[in-house]
Amino acid sequence: MDSRSDKESVKAIPAPADSDLGVGETIEVKEGEKLKRDVSPHMVHVRTRVFLLVDTLSPNGKQVISLGCNIGSGLLVAMGKALHTGGPGNMVIAYALLCTCVGAVLQTLAEMTIAFPVSGNFVNYAQRWLDPSLAFAAGFAEWLGWTAVSSAEATVFTVIVNYWAKESVHEAVWLSVFMVFVIALFLLPNKYFAYYVYFASLLKIIGLTIVIIVSIVIIAGGGPTGRVHNGEYWRTLPVFANGFQGFSNCALLALWAVGDQVFVGILAGEADAPRVSMGRATKLIPYRNAVLYMSSVVLCTLMIPMNDDRLFGGSGSAASPFVIAMNDAGISGVPDFFNVVIIIGIAGVAVESIYISSRVLRSMAEQELIPRFVARVDSRGRPRWSLAITLATGTMLTYINLSNTGAEVFTWLNSITSSSLFIVWLVVCLTSWRFRAALKVQGDPLFNELHAWSCWAWPFPTAWLFVCSVLLLVCCIYIGLVPIGSTSVSAYSFFQYMIGAVIVVVFTAVHKAIYRTKLQDPATADLKSGRHILTAEEVRLLDVYYRMPAWRRSLSYFRS
After folding, report:
1. CA atoms within 13 A on the CB side of 408
2. What pTM was computed for the model?
3. CA–CA separation, 235 and 477 (whole Å)
4. Exposed, middle or buried: residue 208 (CB in 10 Å: 0-12, 13-18, 19+)?
5. Which runs of consecutive H residues, i.e. helices, occur in 269-383?
6. Rounded CA gap, 503 and 501, in Å?
7. Contact 232, 69 (CB under 8 A)
């Protein structure tokens, strides 16, 4: 179908209640056109009455979520494991490297998302411009990776609660409390879910800002003990502990902490104004990483020695490095406050991960990569089947915690997510190159259109992301073959670290063997369905926006 250039020329036809597309869904077609039921879903722009965060919150609320949603156990707790295994030098380099990757993936994905804001985002793009089998495997990896996040957050939840409980309550009780809370949020009216995600994101931003300020005071000797930190741990302890092994482990933990920003494209692709929402997220999130993430990393290396056994993964009690530093400085009250922030924050990340993974699964069903009944939604707009499958899988992974120590299970879950994420990044890079090739071969004037959004300095961000993703693959293979503390090859460890990559390779091969799919030809690749053409009102608003001086445009980021 042609692009949607005029909302007045579009008619929404309700789908039958028993349609595979789902209860309450609509398919947009032009006036006078008949709906072809045999058309593949990715050839039709499907617009579904499914619950969206963007329907509930103000623009400021959406920006708060985009800034705070990924702040979870990876930054607040697991950073201690990176410091413990790699030392301060490896940790700073690894986190800085991954922060640049976030900017690159957002730049690469933004131009596709803004032009084609379709449900499914990168899975849809990979199917139409790259290869359906790779789209299937990458979509499954994204789903499993985000589902594993909720279980990993549950692991950290038990660790933090034991800061007060001192292991007086069985771990199964805390895991059950955590999962009941997560599931309950999805059973309540949608607005409560949205408000909790907003509140958790806001609290994490405020809490982390307070902790950064307190950390600076501690380093300067302003704590009750009066001890000044002048970089002594950089001078007296190994800066690059365990060499490339240490860096590899830090890089994978940094990937967990910085997180997969592909979900930003998934949410922006369903927004009413992707040109604004995705464009702003692409600019704001790298600044968040530079200020909040890198400040936290550097301050952590100055306050805590890498050989402190209280760090997560050490032989002592696992805890946030910031809580350890505040306790050592003799500060009371703030450590308890920060642990509360961590608990609320990791619960927020858990529900966000279920939200995202269920939407990925649903979008795969819309594209007929998995059975279409999974795409169905209930009367409240919740994707009932994809949500049920995701919650069941997440719960199963959560209770696996009971079979081993929290740190060991966390390593497994972290590895599933990390190895899945950089494989998805590779798919995004390949899809971007095929997308550009299709535009060139077909002579499409997309980037010459008024107010068109294109990747900054393309192809450099995409090439940088590809190189970094390959480096992460090398790190994953190396740390898997020869884990820290071992001098011999370990098959167990290799599978542990490479499980996400193995899943993608196997699923791609099996899907291709069954369906005999081929690479999409750039000359015939679909550049029409789901394409967003700016309306006259959008053009008018953008004209007004770009006539403003830069300082006024920056202020618009903080207005609702």
Report:
1. 9
2. 0.82
3. 31
4. buried
5. 274-288, 294-303, 321-328, 334-366
6. 5
7. no
Residue 4, strand partner residues: 532
Give residue limits of the domains in the chain: 7-558
| Per CATH, domain 7-558 is 1.20.1740.10 | yes
Q: How far is CA 327 from the centre of its chain?
A: 32
Separation CA 408–CA 133 (nearest Å)? 33
Expressed in angstroms, the distance from the first to the final Cα of the chain is 35
| 96: confidence class by pLDDT, cuts 50, 70, 90 | very high
Instruction: State pLDDT tens for residues 532-542.
Output: 888 888 888 88
Task: Find how far residue 503's CA is from the centre of its chain.
Answer: 19
Lookup: tokens for 270: 């369903």
In this structure, is the dihedral angle defined by the CA atoms of residues 431, 436, 437 and 443, taken in order, positive or negative? positive
Q: Helices 190-219 and 321-328 meet at what angle, rounded to 10? A: 40
Asked whether the predicted pLDDT for residue 200 surpasses 60, the reply is yes
* Burial track 19-38 (b if 16+ CB lie within 10 A, e otherwise): bbbbbbbebbbeeeeeeeee
Q: Give the position of tokens 């089998």.
A: 133
